[in-house]
Amino acid sequence: MEIDSYNERKAFDETKAGVKGLVDAHITEVPPIFRLPQGTLSNKKPSVSTSAIPIIDFADVDVSREGIVEKVKDAAEKWGFFQVINHGIPLSVLEEIQGGVRRFHEQDLQVKKSYFTRDLSKTFLYNSNFDLFNSSSLCVNWRDTFVCCMAPDPPNPEVIPLACRDAMIEYSKHVMSLGGLLFELLSEALGLHSEMLKSMDCMKGLNMVGHYYPPCPQPDLTFGTSKHSDSSFITILLQDQIGGLQVLHQDSWVDVSPIPGALVINIGDFLQLVTNDKFISVEHRVLANIAGPRISVAGFFSTNMLPNSTVYGPIKELLSEENPPKYKDFTLEEYTKGYFDKGLDGTSHLSKFKM
């Protein structure tokens, strides 16, 4: 990273006001640190594609479980992404958590600044771009974020800012419950007993992340979130109606069109590793938008922020002479350290663990 870029990033960081601070200052041009290198801009439009992300209806999951498991299996193998409707989380809860994320990011700056930190050991932290000072990241992303570790040890409510406290606590309970069902369905989709993934502590940890993408004056020059895959077992994402999320499917970018009340589910790197590539963690990104703010709430199932000595590797029951292990064993902590050091540089961290 050149000196100029580092100094600009440092100056931006020291405002503690994030991208929203730039927009509040009525800038009309995207600052240089946010600009994508020339030549990377040409592929921002989604490729012409008739395919759409699978949509799975969970309304009759108890009655037609087998059929739903088959759909989950198909989506996890071919797409790594699917949307779920009739998932059981009330619309009022979804609206309230989106409102909570918005209230946090739009509250008085002095109050918001008190939560600003780059210390990943904090239960609740707010900043802009976790990889701001990584030399490998292509450009700074046009978004601000807060992260709160909600499980395995639910935080003292006082730690969560008042603006989003009740909404976070309520929404997290529902996400844990839906996560439990998803891990059962995914286990069954692998031909294993329904408690298999849970017994491996795949849903032990939950990090709730509230992203705020302010309107961007020159959306073609930057990204809301650069291309990446998730360091999680699975991610449950709630997005608003502005759109901009795209997934890479068969070398084409496909829009994940917002559906009111739906949740986006995607397979993370850890699940691709333990399923030995049976389920895929695909790269995705968020475009910047002249409209906004775009609000999204991601629940990452992973204990990657916590000390955890559990060693993971491909599930033994899935291996055979025809299907030998493709990955070496790893700990979530070891994986995450490399993932964070690398930042969102457009490359997958999975390859580092290939046999």
UniProtKB/TrEMBL annotation:
Q: By its UniProt entry, which PANTHER family does this protein fall under? A: FE2OG DIOXYGENASE DOMAIN-CONTAINING PROTEIN, OXIDOREDUCTASE, 2OG-FE II OXYGENASE FAMILY PROTEIN
* Cofactor entry: Fe cation
Q: Which PROSITE patterns match?
A: FE2OG_OXY (PS51471)
Name the keywords, alphabetized.
Answer: Iron, Metal-binding, Oxidoreductase
Show the InterPro entries listed in the entry: DIOX_N, IPNS-like_FE2OG_OXY, IPNS-like_sf, Oxoglu/Fe-dep_dioxygenase_dom
Return the similarity comment: Belongs to the iron/ascorbate-dependent oxidoreductase family.
Which molecular-function annotation in GO is an example for this chain? Answer: metal ion binding
Q: Which domain of life is it from?
A: Eukaryota
Question: What Pfam family does this protein match (any one)?
Answer: 2OG-FeII_Oxy
* Protein name in the entry: Fe2OG dioxygenase domain-containing protein
| Residues of the Fe2OG dioxygenase domain | 198-303
